[in-house]
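Record format v2
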Amino acid sequence: MGLSKVGVVATAQTEFRPSWNNAQHIDLISSVVTSVFKGSGLTIDDVDFIIDSGSDVLDGRSISNCGFLGALGAHHKEEARVEEDGLWAALYGVNKIRSGSASVGLIVAYSKPSESNVDLYWNAQVEPFYQRPVGFGQRAANGIQAQRYLADSGVSTRNLADLVAGRWAAAAASGKVVIDDLPDADAVLSAREGAAPLTDLMFARPVDGAVAILVAREDIARRTSRNPAFITGMGTSMDTHSVAAREAGTLSSAAKAAAMAYRNAGWTSPDADLAEVSGSSVVGELLAIEALGLAQAGKGLTAARDGKVAINRSGGALPADPIMATGLVRLAEASRQLSQPELFGGGTPSRAIVHGAGGVGMQNNCVFTLEV
Amino acid sequence: MGRHVGIVGVGQTHHSRRRTDVSQAGLVREAVDRALADAKLSMEDIDTVVVATGPVLFAAVNQPEKWVVDAIGAQGKSVVRLTSGGGAGFAGALAGYYQVAGGFSERTLVVAYDKLSEGQLQYSISTLYDPFWGREFAVGIMGFSAAYWRARMDVLGHTEEAAAMVAAKNRKNAIANPYAHVKKEVTVDDVLNSKPLCWPIKLLDVPPISDGAAAIVLSSEKMAHHSTSRPAWIRGMAYCCEADNAPERSLMLSEPLALASRQVYRAAGITNPRRQFDVVEVQEPYSCFELNYYESLGLCPPGQAADLIASGATQLDGDIPVNPSGGCMGANPIGAVGVIRLIEAATQVMGKNESHQIKDAKTALVQSGGGWANLRGCAVLSA
């Protein structure tokens, strides 16, 4: 049975700021839900369903999607809340269209960590009886991953700082991320300790913002979008909860997710033109690059900056991590780079890899392949 | 439509007020083990897993699927969590349905649970309300539900007695349900004379607070025969919403449920629900809601739910039995309830219901929902 192809018709995102202190969640959401239709010829009336990602914990509100239904444009439509990074919401939407029961879907993810305590958000995810009392969380997990990575790969903290500075510079150049003081490598190295050997600036920076993506059945995508990117493969995998029990020095669940996505897409190798990759720290990004098959173990650094696959031209997650929306932002960025290459230095890119992650130490991973 | 999807295995815990012998992860494991055994499968045969729970604040573990994954041996698989308040289990099953229907998996395990003894339930629900405009007067979900019922009394002339009949029916049905934990027959007068909590809601109109989990295995048509010769096929399934701030929102008919049932009935070829369904399972967080569902699902004309319950048609021996399992009145682990209702309906059409098998049941209707009564869905199952 031929399953219908699903295309990305349009994307919209707010500026990402450390704090959108003059806007509520509904303002950020309605801003992208309104602007995503511009130029597509479609309206909210054409949308069959809405899948959204956000966190009750970050929002400080139970069933927070319930309070945002109006802003989401969901009134009298089918709506679902995936409480994981927005790339999983996109996965749900693609499945729904592929099943033939819907034609056009709106995928929305948002984040307002400035109103929350992000460390507690992570601490509340760890095992409640043995790990939570000792304060284990995202910082510690990333610090341990980084120590191991540096020991195995010979990469130095200076190398890490160079990559971080490059990512922030790319984000600043994109104009989509608010950066008050652009850090150079020295500033990254001399920042406050995050979790040794990582400084604070080597972690992904939580930001407020929202992103919306309009997905549609192939024929609709072709009629409404000039050069739509099609989602050709999807894979996800969740690793064990216990960080200590995970395979060290690698993100095996990201590798499994990638293998699944490439198999779905009929790819025999990850020879994409570009990739948008998430990472909860700079080492997390390197581990993801390696797990996606874009570099050998321990060799992610070269691929990250100068490989033949253009990775994170947007700057990626390090300068702008709207928690729960970061992976969906990667999908938006990659699809724009494929559909409108003239805005990104030209060329004729045809294939992209998109990666999203969730959980402490990137326990859960999701990979999409995009093609034009 | 895409590929056919069937329920080929089911399992639920023996629900209780407080399970101190297991953690959330252990509770989930029990339901999963039973569902896999029922489907004659092991975790290796499962492609993807969907976990569903109520709001995180209910049990204070953020993104608990990431913890639970180890207890059910699903490490390495595709695992994602859906949440939608009271309808979380149903919303999770719908996500699983689309994973199979859309070709992402051949077999998907959906497990839904809540361990409500570990949190402050009504406090958690109160945080549902708008932080600036709604929380000053928020008292959990009961105040809202009382207003909902009161509006129906004022406009339709429905009485407290009509809802009391629902409570008495479901509580009686729950006695034979091996998984229920509230098993006490009550009369309509007992319900009417029970302690007012938020008038017109009284103690016996309200289901218990429970710890429990429920799991189903969804399968493609190709793989279903490995598990059973008689799957419960999902003929249609939808879950719609209405925005809380819609000024035209009606407290009479549930618009999202009417929308969902219209979609689902069209997909399933249902033109006369009262005649075509052999059995119905609904999620009634308060007794009055079951009356609303009768009308919104088209089991009776708008405004006539009180007449329908009074006629006896929805009793076990009526022509359209509703909640032969006892519904939420027997057990109410909120996030799990959507899947429990699916299980009770699926086992009816599979011919193996453990509470009250309705003779020759072939087509069943399932309703579930959550939020401020603004998230509502239904599904049609048939053998």
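The mean pLDDT of chain A is 96.
The longest strand of chain A covers residues 229-238.
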